[in-house]
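note to self — DONT lose this again. spent like an hour looking for the file last time. sequence + predicted structure for the chain T wanted, 67 res
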Amino acid sequence: MPVEVNRTDVLRLMDEGAQLVEVLPPAEYDDEHLPGAVSIPLKELDASSAGSLDPDAPVIAYCFDYQ
C-alpha cells in the first residue's frame, strides 16, 4: 500500500533497511540520485524488474518533483 513519506521518514526507513528506487529515466539517474538508490525507470517497472528487490523490505520509490 503506497504511503507518502517525508525526509525524516525516509531516513528512518533507510535505517530500518528500506530500499530506494529511483523511477526516472536512466540519464536522470546517472546525473543525480540518492546514495544507495537503484534505478528502475517507471516505464520499465514491472514484476520482472522489481524482482531484484528484497520482497521482505520496504521500498521507497521516488522521483524529482519538477514543480
